[in-house]
Amino acid sequence: MSAVAAHVNSISVGMCQGFSAVLLPQLLDSNSSILVNNVEASWIASLGVISNPLGALMSGVFMQTLGRKTTVQLTSIPFLIGWTIIGLSTDITFLCLGRFISGVAVGMSSACYVYVAEVSLAKHRGVLSSFGPIFVSIGVLIVYSLGSIMPWQVVSILCALTSFLSFLSVNLTPESPSWLASKGRVADAGKSLMWLRRKPSLADKELADILNNLADNCDTGSSAPTLRDFTAPAVWKPFLILVCFFVLQEASGIYIILYYAVNFFQVAGSTVDSNVASIAVAVLRLVMSVTGSVCIQHVNRRTMAMTSAVLMAVSMAACGAYESAYGPLLVNARPYGWVPLACILFNVSVSMLGMVPLPWMMIGELFPLKVRGIMGGLVPSLGYFFIFVTVKMSPGLMTALATDQIMWLFAAAAAFAACFVAAFLPETRGKTLLQIEKLFSSDGQCDETCKGAAAKYPEKKFKPGDATAVYTISSLVDVCHK
Questions:
Q1: pLDDT of residue 188 exceeding 80
Q2: Cα Rg for the chain, rounded, in angstroms?
Q3: What is the homologous superfamily of the domain 229-441 according to CATH?
């Protein structure tokens, strides 16, 4: 219930992401009440993204100070304001302002993943976090469908109603117990866990684990993260991994296809009506989001990400090969005119199995509790900045490069992403947040070394973290000094 309530905001995220695909063709029509040129159209599309980093940074500060739930609820407010301004716009200035404000809300929505990660049990965290991509896909499908039959002004007002529904639903859920405990509100944390778990024994055990973790990290209710906290391996290692993951995700072209769906099908030479094709993309995104949520309970994260990246590379390479062979021909004269559409739809489908949802989901998993709020805002802000760069560059990219070259570029980025995932992405399925934290910490490395010593010297009766036993073997003193 808490996960669904939090991710209602994700519907608005999908609406904002897909809105430009239906807005721009209507604005570029000669009968539009607001006339724009191609440059202005690209700014309208990208303004829904350029403010995402600002919103993500705001959410990081709010999560650390006001709480996870409060931040998720506050996200609904700029969504409501932005959509209302867009719906009432009479010139390009107000249209751009509304897109900018709703873009701030998209950035703030990254708090949903942190909240869901902290209220979920380890065995349920994957599927509950995957509600986010599912709801984003629902939002994209809704706005594509409405945009094909309604003026963009009416669509905007309907989107505003969704944000109001989100504000009401989040009000019914409890605050994150981890955040409450970190602020010294132990009794409130216990009540929150009882609401979430419904079993006193389960709630008490989880609260004890949270408090032990806080004690191990010398965390108190009044303490704030220091520079030393951010330079710890448990912070900078997942930071670099996620940033690289986001760069490769954007380079693979999935957000270019999403934001410019109608235009992209025209450029790719598809013989199918572009509006119908864009709705087909949204339907496939939704179906594959649901499929991904099922797989994530049974398949390792690394396996899903690598499979997704490899299949994306294959689909874009196939599309590139088709364009290389038949690009000079007129669209109506090309054989097998369905091939570009099939390749793009397949690319969108497999992207939802790993490359699109996993970086966002893992933001709430990889960072320690003490800095999770700040890093849960900083990393998405960089991810959104990369999306802005790709969306803003897309019109120029489509002009500067041939269609087949664009496809080959996307294929190369996806192939490189598969190699990166295989080499660096940690496996988090079934692990608690504390166990994931120890994957990157020196203490976790010490424990692994001590386990190796236990296997090699069973008579010493080593235990992970047993300093006395470890000190008896001089070769391990430096590694396991603790």
A1: yes
A2: 24
A3: MFS general substrate transporter like domains (1.20.1250.20)
Long-range CB pairs of 153-157 (<8 Å, 24+ gap) are 153/86, 153/87, 153/88, 153/89, 154/87, 155/19, 155/22, 156/19, 156/83, 156/84, 156/86, 156/87, 156/98, 157/83, 157/84, 157/87
AA letter at 136: V
- The amino acid at residue 123 is K
CATH number of 1-179: 1.20.1250.20
**What is the rounded CA–CA span in Å between residue 32 and residue 6?**
36
Is residue 367 a contact partner of residue 375, using CB atoms and an 8 Å limit?
yes
**pLDDT tens digits along 346-394:** 888 898 888 988 898 888 888 888 888 888 889 999 988 888 888 778 7
Nearest-CA neighbor of 196 among 178, 208, 214, 182?
178
Q: Give residue limits of the domains in the chain.
A: 1-179, 229-441
DSSP letter string, 284-319: HHHHHHHHHHHHTTTS-HHHHHHHHHHHHHHHHHHH
The owner of tokens 């998720």 is 72
Residue 337 or 422, more confident = 422
What pLDDT is attached to residue 463?
47
**Each residue of 230-269: pLDDT tens digit?**
888 888 889 999 999 999 999 998 888 766 665 666 655 5
On the 0-12 / 13-18 / 19+ scale of CB atoms within 10 A, 105 is: buried
The length of the chain, given as a count of residues: 482
CA distance 394 to 146: 25
Please give the Cα distance from 482 to 468 (Å, whole number): 9
Tell me, rounded to whole angstroms, the distance of Cα 343 from its chain centroid: 24
The pLDDT assigned to 269 comes to 55
Query: Sign of the C-alpha dihedral, residues 307, 281, 357, 408?
Result: positive
Q: Quick: pLDDT tens for 47-90.
A: 888 899 999 999 999 998 999 999 999 999 999 999 999 989 88
Asked whether this chain's domains 1-179 and 229-441 adopt the same fold, the reply is yes
